């Protein structure tokens, strides 16, 4: 080993599982499709590169890029009565003017 080389330098953590190109692909997938999950991205990366990447690693890479996890929007299905009452409430207030 030569002096000054970094190839065998001691590390306090294991090497990253993804390359910088894969990191860019992870960010691109998230930005283009917000509904994609970290598990889906991990499966895609695994199918392309033939090495496994955990969903936690995907979330970590997104966080390092300034993107944070979002919970999917979820709404309980409204029953017909709820829909009717909500529509009635909106219709009553439709013509309100800011005073």
TrEMBL record:
Signal peptide: none annotated. Residues 1-23 are annotated as: Disordered. Residues 23-93 form the Transposase Tc1-like domain. GO terms for biological process: DNA integration; DNA transposition. It comes from the Eukaryota. Pfam families: HTH_Tnp_Tc3_2. GO terms for molecular function: DNA binding. InterPro entries: Transposase_Tc1-like. This is Transposable element Tcb1 transposase. It comes from Trichonephila clavipes.
């Amino acid at each position: 080993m030569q002096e000054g080389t970094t190839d065998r330098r001691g590390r306090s953590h294991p090497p990253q599982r993804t390359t910088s190109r894969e990191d860019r692909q992870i960010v691109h997938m998230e930005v283009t499709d917000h509904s994609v999950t970290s598990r889906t991205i991990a499966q895609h990366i695994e199918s392309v590169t033939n090495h496994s990447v955990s969903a936690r690693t995907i979330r970590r890479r997104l966080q390092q890029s300034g993107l944070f996890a979002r919970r999917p929007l979820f709404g309980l299905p409204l029953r017909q009565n709820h829909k009717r009452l909500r529509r009635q409430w909106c219709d009553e207030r439709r013509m309100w003017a800011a005073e």
